[in-house]
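Job type: complex structure
Entries:
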Amino acid sequence: MSTQREVRVAVAGATGTVGQRFICLLSAHPYFRLVSLNASPRSAGKAYKDVVRWKQSVPIPKNVLDMVVKTCDVDQFGDAEIVFSGLDSDVAGDVEEGLRKAEYAVFSNAGNFRRDPMVPLCVPLVNPSHFAIVPHQKEALGLKKGYIITNANCSTTGLAVPLYALERAFGPLETVMVTTMQAISGAGYPGVPSLDILDNIVPYIGKEEEKIEWELTKILGGLADDQKSFDLHAKHPMKVSASCNRVPVVDGHLECASVRFARRPPPSPQQVKDALRNFYSEAQKLGCPSAPEQAIFVHDEPDRPQPRLDRLFQNGSGVSVGRVRECPVLDLKFVVLVNNVNLGAATSSIINAEYAVAKGYV
Amino acid sequence: MSTQREVRVAVAGATGTVGQRFICLLSAHPYFRLVSLNASPRSAGKAYKDVVRWKQSVPIPKNVLDMVVKTCDVDQFGDAEIVFSGLDSDVAGDVEEGLRKAEYAVFSNAGNFRRDPMVPLCVPLVNPSHFAIVPHQKEALGLKKGYIITNANCSTTGLAVPLYALERAFGPLETVMVTTMQAISGAGYPGVPSLDILDNIVPYIGKEEEKIEWELTKILGGLADDQKSFDLHAKHPMKVSASCNRVPVVDGHLECASVRFARRPPPSPQQVKDALRNFYSEAQKLGCPSAPEQAIFVHDEPDRPQPRLDRLFQNGSGVSVGRVRECPVLDLKFVVLVNNVNLGAATSSIINAEYAVAKGYV
Amino acid sequence: MSTQREVRVAVAGATGTVGQRFICLLSAHPYFRLVSLNASPRSAGKAYKDVVRWKQSVPIPKNVLDMVVKTCDVDQFGDAEIVFSGLDSDVAGDVEEGLRKAEYAVFSNAGNFRRDPMVPLCVPLVNPSHFAIVPHQKEALGLKKGYIITNANCSTTGLAVPLYALERAFGPLETVMVTTMQAISGAGYPGVPSLDILDNIVPYIGKEEEKIEWELTKILGGLADDQKSFDLHAKHPMKVSASCNRVPVVDGHLECASVRFARRPPPSPQQVKDALRNFYSEAQKLGCPSAPEQAIFVHDEPDRPQPRLDRLFQNGSGVSVGRVRECPVLDLKFVVLVNNVNLGAATSSIINAEYAVAKGYV
Amino acid sequence: MSTQREVRVAVAGATGTVGQRFICLLSAHPYFRLVSLNASPRSAGKAYKDVVRWKQSVPIPKNVLDMVVKTCDVDQFGDAEIVFSGLDSDVAGDVEEGLRKAEYAVFSNAGNFRRDPMVPLCVPLVNPSHFAIVPHQKEALGLKKGYIITNANCSTTGLAVPLYALERAFGPLETVMVTTMQAISGAGYPGVPSLDILDNIVPYIGKEEEKIEWELTKILGGLADDQKSFDLHAKHPMKVSASCNRVPVVDGHLECASVRFARRPPPSPQQVKDALRNFYSEAQKLGCPSAPEQAIFVHDEPDRPQPRLDRLFQNGSGVSVGRVRECPVLDLKFVVLVNNVNLGAATSSIINAEYAVAKGYV
């Protein structure tokens, strides 16, 4: 990618936890150049270092310390071409819609447009092919360059990668059951009160189960032939059941999944492991610099992946899978780990944008 | 039970974590009188307080402080009628077999005899009816009073109670899927190293999944008509799939379960909640003093049960259920909490023994 | 105390974490009868069970479930004689002042009046003798029955008990250094965000060090001869230095203290242990039912007290001390554990009130 | 350092937790080349990846995966010039003594030789000047190249750096009081059982207080004029009192310290902060590649340093200080954070060795 021209980018919601992670990743990016930090009016006009409650384990990047934060008004994003949005969902809808109208390419981590029938819900290692709906999105809204791409919910993202690898190797899945154990960082800051989670588990995360159950159908499904709508996996209806739990882990969502394939007989555990190991995504082929070298790492040890030991593998840009074995009820069960703050959030948006650049959408 | 005569009991493995819990519960028992503490030769001959590494949140009961510990040799249990065994499985087999031959009634928390075709695997709120095989067990071994009763694995126990309540109300279950999040106390002391579990989850517990998958068929199944063997739920084959995780919680196993009933249409979530709430076990009817007032507490709040808030309900002798809802794949899903050190271990053994006393088996 | 008449009490701030603890303790109290639950207007008019976010490990007491919550307006406390205040400090000042004027005896856990020159700052195992200023407080304000008693900050309370026992046995202390490790429950709910404290320590608690350093002088000091003012330990100036940390522990503040006595030579570790063990407070002598049987438990084991093992000793109404040994810099060092939600908060208020009843102040 | 020749090194105790950290650091080192992994006979003859229980959050370095582990017999270290020892103290004494006799330069993290009157106890940012005793050590033992250098206990190391910076700027310290809150990784693996530390603190670490109190005098003291003995800070006797606690934190020891200077008046907090910020060690001046860019980072925020946020600063090779303020008892108090597994262990040994190379001791 050495010949890639520099692309100017902004971060909306720059002071929040997702915004902080965007800043960490973008500060070291080979061709994205951070030109604008945007946040609430409360922070605007002040140096970034004076308004942020920095919660990352690395210091604030030096080039960002004294950048003056601006508001999220649509005229405050300067000459950025791409806006990464780490906004909270209560404000993301209006801001992102305004930015799109102002002809920005918006890559959003917020949930507001995930169910929009013209907006790709894009896990970059899975379905960047959904970018093909972007021309329709722009045309329908009378725009030249403006569009919105969302990435998926963090727990959905982790599961979507191996499920897609399995469908590509063995054909459609009929049934997916998953129980998640999700890290506290997934709830933002201040997020989960410590009295709720120390020496405890909360077996409920508002709307999370519905997100997983629905988003997977959009992500794993295809586009209609006219490339103007999503088919929601309708050719091969897929039933998904999720149970979501919050656990006392800082980073890294662990998920216990069981699946049933349409094809009989189903593949063996060894065939599944081979298929996961060999999976190579379009984003990797294109050389997206934030994509992992290996999309799916498959552990042979019986007790892996584990959040603390495996969440930083490849800077959290891939997923780890382990315990691939037969399921007495469905066909196969396995364990997935995704780094919710990296691939599960900011990293996905950035790879999506890298894909857009490589494909000429920016 | 005020007229119940005193029954003399011993604890084998008295210094271990399960043994400590037995001692706490027995010291306050209305009619079991603790007459013997038995442990390894290393501890024998010394005062209990000088050899135990006490890890309970209540002090050592005063009457036990200076009791002299004896070995587990079969002649060291004095005039006890019942022996509660909290022994580790590496020694439990020989000791318990010896005690049975010496005509003791042995109530064991160890796993060694759980698959024995003549030994009841007994969750006291579920299948004390399996005691009916005890005459056969004694006869086959030529014994008058000696027999072994085991209680189930802690995570199995918690799930067995609501599953049994459902089968009693709605007929046989066809399919059970469960993902467990198990507390560290389930692994004993020293058990799980802190470096393995702080800010982490281990998605594996050796042989635990196999235990759940097999033990449920024995517990929920019945006895053959001649009361000399277990039918392992064979009349209505039941498929069980378990995924087990160790989590950073001190006490209390949380389990996310999904079930499918044989009967069509299945009961509604409201019918299931009613059935669980109305469930009343044989042990409760008999007035066993350690049985809970309510066997299954059903939460209506969306985020319960939680280990830290609910594990001490009724001194941990019942189970808590919440989030009863439809499952997009099977019929219904719900969350179960069991106190693994109480109902999941020592309390079950004690209620089993109370049942045996009430029914004349002691 | 069997002949003590029933005393009607109210709880202001009944839905907060301290209020919840008051309710737990008062529901089982031998002679305090809970007649009024008062909270913010938002909760008023509704059943307690419908407005509280209950965070205790025991269920809401049955007699409280359906009590209708009232506001904290001064005419809403009915015929209560005593009001226990678990109010937040931002509202406690006005409410408590109003209640005093309305002739209620107010026992407050809030900090607002702790530095008031007419209000006792009372650790019930230490300085209930300060109640002697109450007649002056009432007289100065022209009241017949109304007055305010505060208990101390939780970390101050734990340290004050052994320090007082030492001063009573060996004369004045010259120097006290203490480093605290304080539980998250001390910060209320939602309190400390989990992202701040999981796998972490925060070496700072706002104003906590100043509280310990000042409150100890008021508590350990005496009254002026005319019983109209506090002497703040002025006869023997005492220097106190505190360093406060928040740690990932649910309940129980642990404190590492070093002290220097005025008297030379100082007492030996063994003399100190004896003095702490033999300490018997006025509240115990009077038979206050919530006072501990033993005020200070002294551990001989090298690694105690520990929060999880020792915080429930005597229902958290006493303090635990361990590791009494010589200090290479000052005279002696030791470790103190106090249950911050019991003796460190609600229990202290209740024993203070019991003392007031016993002494005829109510 | 680009012209530095390659230096061949071995790791003794390669499979332990300190050994694993040595391997991580050495695999990326600019001129140390890892030529030998040595461990117990149980591991010898097998590939490293097959015998290690890897507990690091980064994968095993690729070049090490298949290295064949050898025993710690003195003839098994091949042509290494330096041996880094991460051995447990029960075997370290004999092995290290043997290696020294065999003319290896031994840099040990074990405690066995820390009190040896000829062996430097060397915190690399503090007292590499103690290397001047090495010629005496070799001569006294009749050796040409063999010698032993130890680094300090992890909690001592963190405190020694700012104390040394203060003594260099303001002259001798008279008194040091410190309370430590130490991470579980300091106890190795399996180390602290999770049942002892989850939701808990253990106010005791065996021999740790004695280590801090004594080691500081050796480290902060000088050499006698003949460079044949250590003066143990004898010219200005220094009293040190330590209280040590184990806390539920994975990595990073936090320490609350108070100090008194000999000089009157003492420096102000601002002077202290300036002195700490300006401190620049000999190892940094020499360009040791593993030395931090900044030895001491001083926080102005009131609530820092914190283990989780600050332990990875500069890869854990510096220390963080915060909350510099006046102490009501001594002169000044502050908080120190040291990464116990990096600067507190392997990193110190490696910088010590880099210093030895730069100074011609290797």
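Summary: The mean pLDDT of chain B is 96. The two ends of chain B are 15 Å apart (CA to CA).
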